[in-house]
Amino acid sequence: MRTGLLLLAALGLLQGCQKPLQPPMSMGEQLCPEWVHNRHTVRGPDGEFYPTWHPQVDPEYGCYFDHEHGDDPRTSLANPELPPFGYVGKLAGMPEAHEGFKVFVANRGVRNDEDRVALTSTRIVAHMGTGGVRRYSVRHHSLMFDLVAPSGHRVSVQGMADTGLVGSICARDPTLNDTDPSNDIGRAVMTLPGSGCHGQNPGSLYEIWTFKLRLAEKVEVVASTAVFDPITTMNPFNVNELHYTEEVFEGFQGLRGCNREAYHGPVYWYNPGGPEVFYTDAFGRAGGGLRQVVSRHSDVGIWMSQRSDGFQNQFKLSKNHCAPGLGLRN
Question: Per its UniProt entry, which superkingdom is the organism in (predicted)?
């Protein structure tokens, strides 16, 4: 009995010495240390942990990151799961810089600045950064795309999408509208004054990429992402040169690639007989480790947006994610 009382007293003493858990100390308005950033991970399909989406200001410590990833994927009605950034690139043997992963969410019922209403819910996770020159020479970039529609149409796909050739934004439309698909400019960028259609004062800036992902002849997804404030500008005669846009053109400052828009769709179904779940490699060839989900349909596009003057097989939505603290690699 005496021994039991002594043990109880000792336990009480130890509990009294333990301090209650304190909330994390706020770091205030400063750049987050790397260890804070490394806390934002998610388990991928292979069981490994990958960096994932996070807000630009850490909700627990109050510090900020020098990059942002766009919309909160957890708000998506098409897929609310956190995406594993870098998973697709790992399977392809093509590592992609973390800062370049951007998320675009468009839920059914959302109205855009052109008064069009989304008829489907879609989510794009695209690797598109404008802070470096590597994008001028790398054609394939990772894309995750999800869509659900009231009609039962559905896709949840991923892979290394083809973004076509790189070229001046001025040359994009002529190449897309001719009869030669081999010269299509899919990554249309700003180029140095005198090398395209722009002089020293272009008035506005724009860079747009078109992602095309075709999987095992069962589906083709087309998505386009664009920025109104590209961080760098291309020298078409030497794509490895780094030129910051605000130093190239007059009248612009604080460009961080954070004011964006995306075109969700169109999507083409070639899967009338299923199966709805199949596997491909990172480039869409049958067989491999990437799980794909495509509903049993045969439709060359579906209506994805509506306005009083008609329907479209895609939906455009603009979002501005600019905030203090963003750096030149965003």
Answer: Bacteria
